[in-house]
Amino acid sequence: MVQLVTKGIKISVITNYEGSFYKNYKINYAFTYTITIENQSKDSVQLLSRHWEILDALNSPIIVDGEGVIGKKPVIKPGEFYTYSSGCLLTSPFGSMQGHYNMINLASTQKFHVAIPNFKLSAVFAIN
Asked: ApaG domain: which residues (predicted)?
């Protein structure tokens, strides 16, 4: 697990290798990740959007921007947390992801970024 706190918002990430399969005559490696967003601040916040940088050992980085996470824009009250799971496909058994969430403090209406720590994606058979 990797963790990082930005402006009172703690991000924790757990990853898992799910297996490989062929798609369009190319092998793909499937990974899932579970992220917990914990509000350790004194104000309620809302997650508005996300920005991802996905690094695949055999390809150029992929940038993904989108609204919310898994179709939701959760409001997280002080002392509460929100957990979701998602995944990605790589063309190699090694990679990583990092990025940030765009959030808003609902008390002050100030928007801010929350860093998502860099986390590794690696197939268990490929680890020395």
From this structure: 3-128
* pLDDT for residue 103: 98
Q: Which CATH class is domain 2-119?
A: mainly beta
126 three-class SS: helix
Burial tier of 3 (Cβ tally within 10 Å: 0-12, 13-18, 19+): exposed
**Per-residue buried b or exposed e for 96-114, using 16+ beta carbons within 10 Å of the residue's own CB:** bbbbbbbbbbeeeeeebeb
Domain boundaries, given as residue ranges, for the chain: 2-119
Q: What is the pLDDT of residues 1-39, one digit of tens each?
A: 999 999 999 999 999 999 999 988 999 999 999 999 999
Residue 125's closest CA among 95, 93, 96, 90? Answer: 93
Which residue did the predictor score with more confidence, 59 or 38?
A: 38
